[in-house]
Write the C-alpha cells for this entry.
Amino acid sequence: MLKLALVGLGASGLFCLEELAGQNVEVHVFDVGPTYNKRYPCPIDQGKLEVCPPKACSYCAPGQSAGSWNDFKVILSASPVIGGRLYDLVGEKVLQEHLDKLKRLILEHAPVNIPVVKPNQDDLDWIKQRATFAGMTYHYQELLHCGSDNAPAINTSILNQIVEKGPNIIFHWDTKVVSVARRQEKFAVISDSYRKPGAEQEELFDFCIMSVGRGGANWLTQQEFYKSLDISPGQVDIGVRVETSCYFTEEVDKRFYEPKLYYLTRRSNDVVRNFCSNPKGFVTPENHREYVLVNGHSKMYEKSENNNFAVLVSKTFTRPFKNPQQYSQHIAKVTNMLAGGGPLIQRLGDLRSGRRTKTLVNNLIKPSLEAECGDISLAYPHRILEGIVEYLDALDKICPGVAGESTLLYAPEVKSYPDSIVVSKNMETNIPNLYIIGDSSSWTRGVGQAATSGMLAGQGVGFKLKDLGPLEKKSLQPVNTKQESASNAIPVEVTINNAS
Ligand SMILES: Cc1cc2nc3c(=O)[nH]c(=O)nc-3n(C[C@H](O)[C@H](O)[C@H](O)COP(=O)(O)OP(=O)(O)OC[C@H]3O[C@@H](n4cnc5c(N)ncnc54)[C@H](O)[C@@H]3O)c2cc1C
C-alpha cells in the first residue's frame, strides 16, 4: 500500500484526514502536540493562571492549534477578502460547498446548539449606509462562533469519528517532524519525540501533506525541497488590539457579531481592517517564546463589559526586501522591550496627544488584561499608527464612542503570513505529490479556509489514488525540479492587501 505523511493536525490537517480516512493509502499523522483529549484551552482564559508563563506554555506553543481551540470562530462565507485567498484559487462555488460541509460537520459534533450568525436584510441595509457615510467598505459574512469552551469537545468528537472510519491511519502524537526531504520519487521524513528528543527515525512516503500552520511556516522554509517551490513573498499585518466599552459597539454587535469593515488611508492608501471582534470578551496574551503578542477571545457563558477587536494595517513589500515576517517580529520585540517583556497598553487620547499613558486608575474603560502602560508610538512606524487612528475615527461614525480618549490600545498585535506558494486547485505544489495546506501555504488565514484547503488536498490524493488503479503495480511520478510544474498547478497572482 502507498504511504502518506500528514505533518501537523491542526485545522487543515484534521479535515484533510477526514477525507483520507478509509482510503487505500497508509496515512501517518505527525503532530508535536498530545492527543486531542489532552489539549486544553488557555489557562489564563480559564482563570487558572494570572499571567503568561515566561516560556510559552503548550497553549500558544506548537501543539495546540490555537484557532481551533481558542474562540473557534469559523467564517462560513466564501469571500474574496475574508479568511484567506481560496476564492481566487478554486472559485466561489467550490469554496462555499466546502465551507458548508465544514459547517455540517461542526454542528453535528457540537455538544450544544450553536447558532449561525448571519445578518438579515434590514441589518445589511443599516451597515451599508453607515459604512458608506463613514468611508468604509462592508464585506458580508456568516459565521459560527463555537467558543473556547466548546472547542475541545467538537475537535475531539470529529477526530474520534475519523479514527472509527479510518483503520488506514497511524498517529504519531508528541512527535516532531525534524525534516522532510525528497528521495527519488519519495519523501524521507525524519521524526523525533518532541519532549524527549534523541530517538530520530526516518521513513519513506509516497505522498507528503504539510499542514504545519503559521507556527511551522519558518521551519518549512528550511526544508530541502523549499527552494524548488514556486513562491512569492508574503504579507504582514501590523496593528493593535482595541478595547472599548461594549455599549459603544452594542448596536453593531447585536446585528452582526463582527462586521468586516475595510478602510483605505488618506495619505498612503494602505488597507486597514478590523479583525477578531470579541463582544463582551477578554484580551489575552499570545506567547511566542521570543515575543509576546496580544489577542482576544470570548466565551459562551462568562462575559465582560468590554468589546475588543484588532485593527490591522496590511503591508506588502517589493524587492530588495523579502523578509516581512522579520520586520513585524522586530516591531513586536521592540514593543515588548519597552514594556519590560510583555504587551504595552495606551489610552487612545494619550496616543493622539503624543504622551505615554501612566495609569489607568480613573480610566472609563477597565482593561481586561493587565499590561504595562506606555507609549506605542515609540515602537510603531508613524504610518501604521496614522492608519489605526484614521480607522477608529471612521468607525466612530458607526459606533459613536469607540474613538474616545479612554479607548485602550494594546500592542503588539501583528500577523505575518508565510510566502505564497503556487499550488494546484487541490493544494499540490509544483513538486508532484507534495501538498502544502492551511496557513503555512499562505492561502488561508482562519479555521474555515484552512479546513477547506485540507479537504481539497485529501480529495486531490483521492483522485490520484483512483487514477493509479491497482496501487502496488504503478509507481508515482518522478521527482520534479523547479522548472517543471505539477500537471494541474496554476500560477495564481498574489492579491495584495486582502487579508482576512
Ligand atoms: C490565539 C489564536 C486565536 C485564533 N482564533 C481564530 C478564530 O477564532 N477563528 C479562526 O478562523 N482562526 C483563528 N485563528 C487562526 C487559526 O488558528 C489558523 O488560521 C488555523 O488554525 C490554521 O490551521 P492550520 O492547520 O494551517 O495550522 P494549525 O491549526 O496551527 O495547525 C498546525 C499543526 O501543526 C503542528 N506542527 C507544526 N510544526 C510541526 C512539526 N515540525 N512536526 C509535527 N507537527 C507540527 C502543530 O502542533 C499544529 O497542531 C487564531 C489563531 C491564534 C494564534
User: Anything to note?
Assistant: The mean pLDDT is 88.
